[in-house]
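As agreed, record minuted below.
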Amino acid sequence: MDSPDDLLIIGGPGSGKTTISLFKAFRFLSQPEINRGQQVLFLSFSRNARARILESAEKFEEFDDLRKHLSIQTFHGFFLEIVKCHGYLLGTKEKINVVPPHDEAIQKFGRKDDDLNWLEEREQNFLMKGQLVFDLFAPKALEILSKSARILELYAKRFPLIIVDEAQDTDSLQWSIVKCFAKRSQLTILADLRQQIYDYRENVNSERLDEIKKFLNPVEFDFSSENHRSPEMEILKFAQDIYNRSVEQRKYKGVDCFKYAPQQNYPALGIMRGLREIRKLSEANGGMLPKSIAILARTNAGVKSVSRFLNNYNVPHKYQFDEVATNISSRLVACLMEPILDSRQHLLFCLFIVKEYFSTKGNAREVDKYTKWIESIKDEKKVTGTMVPALVAIISTIEDMDFTGNPAKDWRYIQSVLYSSTNKGLAKIAKHSENLVAFNRGKKIMQGLTERWDLDGRYSNARGALQAALVETQISNITPKQSGINLMNMHQSKGKEFDAVIIYENPFSCPFEVKDDTHDYLKIRKLLFVAITRARNHVVLVSQHNSYPPIMRGVLAT
């Protein structure tokens, strides 16, 4: 608590790393020499991790008095703050504006992240247009801090103590930025190599912890044996035994494992059985029914299949969706809500958005087709196919409609018109817009649309309201509670906590085998360790007969 040195705290999920570092933060902030402009900076990877840290901080008595001195940010949020404040020093000719991932995907046109032409194009877009894509947050922030000792000193004085969460997953750029503050701010590093599941990312590797030790020479504390997340259960021990390949052939308290038959309907029945099992276990232990349940699969295809199962049984749930497709689809809905002043011009707007959708997929054939259609319409030439007539019919239907002024109701009406389109491809694209209400996106968008309506009784520039809301939610520090049933892949579950977790395995949609995994199954062992330890009270593993890898052999009971 009182050490002025850099610290390294090693410990697994629920070991108390976050709590002890918050104790450290509040103790530090209570010193009389801390002035009103100084803060403790807590850096985490995701908004979900930030929400977990904030939830823990709110339990401290000192929180109300010192909350203004506690800055809990994501890496992206912190880097963006630096670039927006000082990015003009890098020579950009226009005001810096953030390009959200769906618009970046349009610009990339299917090119890979490391494509040299794309890297040059995004740099030119930044310098000439002020366009800042997410992948430039870190390099531009590092460039500013590296080139200006004065700016770095200002940030170091503002943040005399910096706490870095999940440091083992920092890439080379993120770690380089943290290193800038060494000897200027006190650093407290939280890490656990068993939870390093993002090592498939470029410049993330298992040597990061050794590099941290060598560079900082910190005072080390090891909390690996502590468990405050599920102390009454054997969930952590089960996860550790999976990781260590030493699973005991017995029942672990809080863990239930079973298999399902391979017939067509049985995977869905397995998931439903898992939900019933959690309810039964909760009631048997005399506890309350779980407020939050996560159903985890290794792949996105597995997540989608589970969502279909739950839809068939009318079970409400949330899942992390394809945001690029969803946001482009929603742009089409927003466009059709705008006043139609010129039906031909509006048709061009809609065609351009559908073209953007195919651009994000890198589908050159479809993009060329839409480009030709757009040019033909501009030249008043006839076009072939069913897409253009379908859009003309939709615009004609909407053109004379009186909207209600209730943006949620009007949004759903536009969706229904698109769904009933004679063009199946258009209806399929529109279907993606359903996902927008997940994770609090819908609330922000509807608020923006309401403001537009209040101005002149129309949804003028609805696309602008949509874009502003999407950018704000993607870079904000606001995270909704993970209540109800949440579907996601194992990687997405990191940094989250749930009352109960179901882990679903299927040999076709989401096998436990990981591509390029070593013969000792290290990647899946790490993934399962993270997935299992998300649970506070119960874990249920659902797997098909004889489909799991050798490390799980004997684990799943019949």
Notes: The mean pLDDT is 88. DSSP finds 22 helices and 14 strands in the chain.
